[in-house]
Design a protein that fits this description.
By secondary structure, the chain is of the alpha/beta class. The chain contains 13 helices and ten strands. It is globular and about 65 Å long.
Length: 327
């Protein structure tokens, strides 16, 4: 897998958590990959139209590169949010950044707007005819800046094609984890979140917990081993005996421990993970329901639909239609 260049565009009054949160997610992802003897997933490059900037906490930053004359075909550009009121886009530096984005970022590039970074993308005309979001207190400003954009509120992050935007502050971490999952898979993103002690990763659709990390805010190593095994291969025909072997305990004791520490039953947890996998296949592939059921570990599409109803009121077919409309 080729290392993806990620350009983090910094401006004055940059919000430190908007910068450090996503950057650390990508750095931890690289650490885990390198620990496995593989190449880093991301190459972080810090750029700005200025040579020195103040941050939200008073610390000054310098040493970043200028706005590059060209971008690699597979590059990602991350627009980091700024603190305070709506950004002053009348400054020469802000105008230079917006002009550079408009000229250099193509539909083939990934564009990520963290918090009010989405406003800069709007000024560059890169949100036209796309769904997007930003910090809840800046949604009206984004609508004024980008009247052709479809600004969604009450969203942690929104992906529309290769354009990703997030709500404020900590939501940038959720978006970065989503990028990791999209690049290297949900189990790997879950490992990154665990390494960073981020037990509750939220999904983009609304402020809720990701199924891949739900029920993991405990410290029992045997239960974590069982959950890791299920996440690594959800479609396997998991028996209580096989899972008890992984936990090095009896089936009865595992059942008690799992409910005590994870807060749910083993079968319910397995169904959550299988439905999460099925949902990805429904919204990101053209496989028919029988193939999806087989890949997600269900005996038939009928069983898949029956279990699906426990966790999602929207039927699989409608979920696929909604996903297609957002692309």
């Amino acid at each position: 897998m080729r290392t993806i260049p990620v350009y983090l565009l910094l401006r004055r009054d940059v919000l430190m958590l908007d910068l450090a949160g996503p950057a650390e997610v990508l750095r931890f992802a690289n650490r885990l990959r390198e620990a496995e003897g593989q190449a880093a997933l991301f190459a972080l490059r810090y750029i700005s139209a200025e040579t020195r900037i103040a941050t939200s906490v008073g610390l000054e930053l310098a040493g970043f590169g200028p706005l590059p004359a060209a971008l690699e075909d597979d590059a990602a550009v991350m627009l980091v949010g700024c603190a305070g009121a709506d950004d002053d886009f009348g400054t020469p530096a802000a105008q230079a950044a917006a002009a550079w984005l408009k000229q250099r970022v193509t539909p083939a590039h990934r564009l990520l707007g963290i918090c009010t970074g989405s406003l800069l993308a709007g000024h560059a005309g890169l949100l036209d005819d796309r769904q997007c979001t930003t910090h809840h207190s800046h949604c009206d400003s984004l609508r004024e800046i980008a009247p052709r954009a479809r600004v969604l509120e009450n969203r942690i992050y929104v992906q529309d094609g290769n354009v990703y935007t997030s709500a404020g502050v900590t939501a940038g971490i959720d978006l970065a984890l989503h990028l990791v999952a999209e690049t290297a898979g949900h189990p790997f993103a879950a490992a990154v979140a665990r390494a960073m002690v981020i037990y509750m990763r939220r999904s983009g659709s609304d402020p809720q917990f990701s199924p891949w990390l739900a029920h993991r805010n405990h410290l029992h190593p045997a239960i974590h081993r069982v959950q890791d095994a299920i996440i690594a291969d959800p479609a396997r025909d998991w028996s209580n005996a096989a899972l008890a072997g992984i936990a090095c305990t009896s089936e009865r004791h595992l059942t008690r421990l799992f409910r005590e520490h994870a807060g749910t039953g083993i079968v319910d947890y397995l169904h959550r993970i299988r439905i999460a996998l099925a949902r990805d296949l429904v919204t990101q592939s053209r496989l028919d329901m029988e193939r999806i059921a087989e890949r997600a570990g269900f005996q038939s599409s009928r069983q898949l639909r029956r279990v699906w109803k426990k966790f999602d009121s929207l039927p699989p077919g409608e979920a696929r239609q909604q996903a297609a409309k957002s692309i």
